[in-house]
Amino acid sequence: MNSKINKTYQSNPFGDRVIYSSEKGEIALDYPCYLQHSKYELRNIKGDVIQKNEAFTSIEKAEARIERLLS
């Protein structure tokens, strides 16, 4: 992961979340839970980084997408 991308970890009743942020914006990576059908989901928090939520089957694919969006 790019050193200019910051990570913040959060936990809530529905699962774990990691917030990735850079100068371009912020994206939340929600870890799989029963509501998400075992997929990692990206959600836009700040900035116009992504227009709609995106789902991935692996953490590696999700983090690669985050790297491309925030770098």
TrEMBL record:
Protein name (record): Uncharacterized protein
Organism: Flammeovirga agarivorans
